[in-house]
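Suppose you are handed only these lines of text.
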Amino acid sequence: MMTENGSDVVLRVEGLRTYFFVRRGVLRAVDGVSFHVRRGEAFGLVGESGCGKTMTSLSLMRLVPAPAGRIVGGRVVLGGRDLLQLSEREMQRVRGKEISIVLQDPMSSLNPAFTIGDQTAEPIRLHQRLRGGALWQKVIESLKLVRIPAAEKRLGDYPHQMSGGQRQRVVGAIGLSCQPTLLIADEPTTALDVTVQAQYLELLREAQNRLQLSMVFITHDFGVVARMCDRVAVMYAGRIVETAGTRDLFDNPCHPYTKALLACIPKVQAEEQELATIDGQPPDLVNPHGHCRFAPRCTERIERCLQEYPPEVAVSENHQVSCWRGGSAAC
Ligand SMILES: Nc1ncnc2c1ncn2[C@@H]1O[C@H](COP(=O)(O)OP(=O)(O)O)[C@@H](O)[C@H]1O
Ligand code: SF4
Ligand SMILES: [Mg+2]
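From them, the structure of the protein bound to adenosine-5'-diphosphate can be written out as follows.
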């Protein structure tokens, strides 16, 4: 495993590009995304709807909807191997074991025809090859980890017999059951009410800390970022425009898009607010222009912004921004 800044880097994504080949042309959903995640770190990906967060996470799992969608470039290095080079058969051994995903809609992840016991047992049976008493012991342990009350008695329940919050916890239990190296959570609380959401985030964070999991946490909600993430990348129109430690990003945002997003959050209730909208429309991802994609909406635009895409510059060791006005002068 590679070491960076004295920490283990578990996942390294380099120049990832995932395109959809649609009638109108080539839709560049993910267009050169690079980031890394360290052991035990929760890394956030934040941005408005449609900026490419889900396609980034599905690309890591190699689950991009085919045939229209295709990963066309880049590397996804997990534990020293580029997952994009594996055969589909090898990839099946990685999914659920080394990388798990927790999705936003538990009903689409759970099968209504099977009990939650069977569904939690499936990845453990497959990847850990446990059977009989040992298997069920592990299933109960996994459900207890996400605080399903009286887990022993719930094994025979079907998804519809549980509340929305409990179903989401079961999805979490399935994701965590094989102690993956990397857990991806894609807007896992969007369908939950605020109180249930707070409880779920807390137990996910607790389990992540306890198991020392690396996590990619996807959200459009900066309140969730503040609560969950150690570092965060801001995505805009298929690209990462700024990456920093969470505290640093909140205190010292450099990219005009990040500043605009943060300015939309009323200070007092910052933890509960979702992103408000910024004036103007995100660009069309089919044949996007070659210059800064935020330029049409940017209040800090200079002439160069409409000529070339800005390169990434380091504001400090752990803080990067892609903006022609970037670097210490702009922040
Ligand atoms: N199945 C699909 N076919 C064509 N385009 C898609 C498909 N799924 C997503 N897209 C497009 O890819 C872009 C990124 O989508 P997505 O990753 O889901 O965004 P986010 O998760 O940030 O809301 C969007 O422009 C979306 O319209
Ligand atoms: S490069 Fe220019 S247009 Fe783009 S965000 Fe920076 S200042 Fe604004
Ligand atoms: Mg999404």
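What can we learn from it? The chain is about 30% helix and 25% strand. The longest helix spans residues 194-211.
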